[in-house]
Amino acid sequence: MQKLNEMRVALICAVIAAAGVIAAPYYIDLFQIMQLTVFAAMAVLALSLGFIWGYGGILSFGQTSFFGLGAYAYAVAAINFGDSTGAIVMAILIPVIFAALLGYFMIYGGVSDVYLGVITLTVSLILFNLVNSTAGDFYKIGDARLGGFNGMPAIPTFNMPGDPGYILSPEQAWTVTGLALIVVYIGLRVLIASTFGRIIIAIRENETRAALLGYDPRFYKLLTFMIGGAIAGFAGALYVNWGAFVSPTIFALGLSAQIIIWVIIGGRGTLIGPVIGCLLMQWMVTAIGGQQALDANFILGAILIVFVLLVPKGIAPTVVDLVKSRLPKAKSDTANSNAKVKA
Amino acid sequence: MTTPPLLETSNLTIRFGGVTAVNSVDFSLKETELRCLIGPNGAGKSTFFKLLTGQLRPSEGHVKLRGEDISGSLPHEIARRGVGIKTQVPNVFNAMTVEENLWIAARHKHTPAFASDLAEEILTQLRLTGIAKREVGQLAHGQRQWVEIGTVLAGEPELILLDEPAAGMTHEEVERTAELILEINRKRALIVVEHDMQFIKMIAKTVTVLHQGSVLIEEDVATVLQDPRVRDVYLGKGLAA
Ligand SMILES: Nc1ncnc2c1ncn2[C@@H]1O[C@H](COP(=O)(O)OP(=O)(O)O)[C@@H](O)[C@H]1O
Ligand SMILES: [Mg+2]
Prior knowledge:
Strand content of chain B: 25-35%
Membrane topology (chain A): Multi-pass membrane protein
Subcellular location (chain A): Cell membrane
Pfam families (chain A): BPD_transp_2
Low-confidence stretches of chain A: 330-343
Number of helices of chain B: 9
Mean pLDDT of chain B: 92
Low-confidence stretches of chain B: none
CATH topology of the largest domain in chain B: Rossmann fold
Distance between the termini of chain A: 15 Å
Bound molecules: adenosine-5'-diphosphate, magnesium ion
Transmembrane segments (chain A): 33-53, 65-82, 88-107, 114-131, 178-201, 222-239, 296-316
Strand order of the largest sheet of chain B: 6-7-8-3-9-10
Largest interface: A-B, 24 and 30 residues
Structural class of chain A: mainly alpha
Mean pLDDT of chain A: 89
Strand content of chain A: under 5%
Order of helices and strands of chain B: EEEHEEHEHHHEHEHEEHH
Number of domains of chain A: 1
Number of domains of chain B: 2
Keywords (chain A): Cell membrane, Membrane, Transmembrane, Transmembrane helix
Largest sheet of chain A: 2 strands, antiparallel
Number of strands of chain A: 4
CATH superfamily of the largest domain in chain B: P-loop containing nucleotide triphosphate hydrolases
Helix content of chain B: 25-40%
Number of strands of chain B: 10
Helix content of chain A: over 70%
Oligomer: heterodimer
CATH class of the largest domain in chain B: Alpha Beta
Radius of gyration of chain B: 18 Å
CATH architecture of the largest domain in chain B: 3-Layer(aba) Sandwich
Radius of gyration of chain A: 20 Å
Distance between the termini of chain B: 44 Å
Structural class of chain B: alpha/beta
């Protein structure tokens, strides 16, 4: 009963959010719409880490590997195909294959959690260096020049599926990106409520127990890691669609660190938390950046320290706890038991 | 050709550096047998269980399940062959409810709906219905032991290993645990590790005594309890229970 109710609430919220996404261009100017678009693309990226870390217990320090691969895969495919639909598929497929190989090596190889962090970090650095050194005519995939440290300019943005001539307007691109965020969020909610979701949470809670019940933790962790790769890759396509540009800095450490910060601040073990953390932090960075008086990194660092010390669970779980402490006791007990697993 | 025993170990040995925690153990268990495994702290009982369930790999020797060699198999593979364990330190899913713990265990073999029914059944059997919606991490140690026993039952194993199931339980709970074990034993084989001699007397038929990793004696319960070597081993280590 509880599960059904929670899912219903989530669906109603999603419908309201979707209505907001569709209505936004009528009320907000183009500049802000453009900003919201990149925020939403980044929030999809935040969800990818929020999922694998919060539910799968896998802390990847290199989620940008899949984000960047998705972005480059989209760029190369869009230039060659002259159509964005297949390119979006490539932006998901290539990172998934990469996540499958990397994940198989790490997870079936019995690499410990700490080393998994180190390896994912290293891989993103290697990708950065590899792509960074692809300047010149030699590095071409079909018609697409990788461009090395200069990046790839003038990448075709999303067009109407089946109609390459119909390029989406910035407002339409926003609608697609905003709705994509909602769809990914709901998709993950459904996944987490499914048997697969219950099992990965069980493995996060107690890997030994899960194995002693017959579940192979490696299999479930690998799938989780691949789903995270798929979502991050998709976020990469959304990101390129926003800027029509991609460069190797997409693999850089700074962004990897930011994703982790978004999840910590918003609340690990929830899905809405990473989205909130991401939107909030990006909005703040933009606001601070506009002033030029304060160093954005310094402020971000300070916020992170404050959160780790004062709001260690992150925003979403803390708000949930606050609301619950005001509910009648009997009700809050059952809500409590589900919330930690579900939210 | 005779059917092989349900479980059989031969020369089963594991060393941790200089310590031989389990030393050349030949052990055999028949279908639906109930065996008690006793021995002072550090005798190697929990380590023996870890070797049986694939949590540790033997340094030497073999474990056979119905004649098939499972030494070196992984825990989930052995679990799928029908071995369930309640470990000494409670191994449960803390952030999940009691109900969900049992459901996950049952879900491995069954559809979601059937798993719910089975979980419900076991909740009633173990008298856990009242705390079904409670988060396991918030329960007392004794209750978590029950949840773990329930989880093991929900997995429907044919061989159940219980490592100190009565530890931290009240006298009444200990008696209920003994009853439950006898009930389970009507269909399934069990190996029970326990310190509490009263408890052993309630359930035991054959008792295996482990001492410094080796089998000291394996006899019916009355013989074992009268054996001077067993008394020496326990008194020497200062039997607390
Ligand atoms: N992982 C390990 N590393 C080193 N020594 C261990 C390990 N596990 C158990 N031991 C040692 O093996 C012996 C048997 O331990 P254990 O099986 O837990 O005993 P019991 O369950 O009978 O009390 C003890 O001396 C213990 O210190
Ligand atoms: Mg022990």
